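Subject: for your reference before the review

Hello V.,

The reviewers asked for a structural picture of the protein, and I figured it would be easier to keep everything in one thread rather than splitting it across files. Below is the amino acid sequence we used in the manuscript, unchanged from the supplementary table.
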Amino acid sequence: RAKLKRTILSIYNLYIAKPIPFPSGEGPLQGPYLRGKSLLGTSKEVEKALDNYRANNKQYKLYANNKNLGYYLVPCGALPCCGTSPRGLAGLLEGGDHISLPVLSTTTLNRVLNPRIVFTSHISNLGLYAFIQSNLGNIGRFQMIGNNTIRYIIGDKNGIILFINLIHGKLRTPKNKIFNDLINFINIKYSTNISESLLDSSHFSNNSWFTGFTEADGHFGIKYVESKAKSDTCNRSVSENVSLKFRLDQRSYDKSTSSPMKPFMEKLALFLSCNLKSYTNNMGSEIPPAGVTPAGGITFLVDYFNKYTLLGDKFKDYKKWEVVYGMIKSKEHLTDEGRLKIRSLMGKI
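And here is what came back from the structure prediction:
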């Protein structure tokens, strides 16, 4: 236990959130609230976002079962973080969201620090996170960053332990190591006996984990190629073509653990029946993407996402993508009206 404590102390830096002022005459709001450098609203605003979300997104009912929600949250929300800033991976596989671990001691002000689990998203996803909060017993708080970014923060002992139990044994990537560091931290600080979280080896199609992964990092693309006749500037004619693409990108190495992501991505590519082809992004990082374009692969994805539906803004992109899928199956994409409709949908993704 002492050796483990020294290890944690050597890895993680102290992270203290600065207090955020409220407008004159106002104090912290009780229950679910939004606060930040500028106060966005009250608990009523969060409740309104939740009501609107439930009214317009019936697919949330699948996740009334916390087991499904736990699988969904694993890739969408639990990005462990070492140090004082989030470690974003490629997009949202636990991206933008993080776990911050302070040192195992009190501060110079004699404050006892807890870890913080932080979900970061665009304000358009407030309803989604209000739904998540409601399913977790209204633990945590909301914070507004700038004009269009929200954070959902879980920082109390009971909330963190609830979150640990919810996603325990459901992680699949090297970040499971950092999640176990969080468990060890809680065990040491509060003398709990939470067991180690083992990597989930269940089939991807058996739960909503892949849906959360897609919410984080997936991209639904529609490609439309206009026909072009052979000309002086084009030696070959181009046939009109409409195709659908689905893509996921990850860095080759998980920075928080220095572990390769390729073995995991190879398993995912096998699930998607596709190949991995690495490329280097503008930051010099090697990215092994996984994507599908064949009709058979698209059909498989449509069946999966209609069973384990997306919950956030990505759901809107998927539904437009699914419309084009249906048009291709029915040959409607070959008509003038179909082409116009597809162009319109492309502009909305």
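For the response letter, the relevant points are probably these. The chain has eleven helices and 13 strands. Residues 140 and 235 are 61 Å apart (CA to CA).

Happy to draft the paragraph if you're swamped.

O.
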